[in-house]
Recover the amino acids of this structure.
């Protein structure tokens, strides 16, 4: 299994292909005026990694972070219990704020989002909220208006390959650049998915001299071709049977 500490960026400087967003966040850190954040864009583009790296640079990691996946905990009860109770706690050393990260917040119900808006209003002096989502149109306007919006673009191929090369070097995985480029292509710009592929390759195939055919098998390319041929054959048989029934 890949070491999560290695595969996840430790600082904003390691975030792949999001230079404009990183520059704006750094400016907020320098000014000491970090706003509530709304990070949105396709999956696997570094939204969660970015906010965790930001927390590390602000020395707010671990004890000052509440991280929730809203697709698992999407109801109003979680907002009132976990989020509110964490937001209410006081801190006695700088930075004088906590960070609440809500991943996949576009899965939250309308009522939960409305309750979250009220909590943001009540605890903004001690807590920063970071809302992460794939589809910003599913976030209610009162939440959007209280956050600085940052759009994450799909990661370009060169940056994604560079990140996979780094992980392979740290994990002693021997995979040619051609293989890494293939993983990126199969992941359609989702770097997290490409890293998951790499994790499965290490677990089931090993780390030495990974062949491109092994990558195709692991990522389902051969299976997809086989499935298509089987499906086409079944459709063909049904079509022949139908024609025979109509024109005996």
């Amino acid at each position: 299994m890949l070491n999560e500490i290695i595969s996840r960026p430790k600082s904003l400087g390691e975030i792949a292909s999001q230079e404009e967003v990183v520059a704006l966040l750094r400016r907020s850190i320098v000014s000491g005026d970090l706003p509530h954040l709304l990070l949105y864009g396709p999956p696997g583009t570094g939204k969660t990694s970015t906010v965790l790296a930001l927390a590390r640079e602000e020395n707010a990691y671990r004890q000052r972070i509440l991280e929730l996946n809203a697709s698992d905990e999407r109801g109003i009860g979680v907002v009132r219990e976990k989020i509110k109770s964490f937001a209410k706690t006081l801190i006695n050393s700088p930075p004088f704020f906590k960070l609440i990260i809500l991943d996949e917040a576009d899965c939250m119900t309308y009522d939960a989002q409305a309750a979250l808006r009220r909590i943001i209003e009540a605890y903004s002096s001690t807590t920063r909220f970071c809302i992460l989502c794939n589809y910003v149109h599913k976030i209610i306007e009162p939440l959007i208006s209280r956050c600085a919006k940052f759009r994450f673009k799909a990661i370009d191929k060169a940056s994604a390959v560079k990140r996979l090369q780094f992980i392979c070097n740290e994990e002693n995985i021997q995979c040619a650049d051609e293989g890494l480029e293939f993983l990126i292509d199969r992941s359609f710009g989702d770097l997290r998915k490409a890293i998951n592929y790499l994790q499965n390759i290490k677990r089931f195939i090993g780390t030495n001299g990974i062949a491109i055919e092994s990558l195709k098998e692991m990522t389902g390319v051969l299976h997809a071709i086989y499935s298509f041929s089987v499906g086409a054959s079944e459709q063909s048989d049904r079509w022949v049977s139908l024609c025979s029934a109509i024109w005996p």
About this structure: Residues 19-151 form a domain with the Rossmann fold fold (CATH 3.40.50.300). The longest helix spans residues 221-246. The two ends are 59 Å apart (CA to CA).
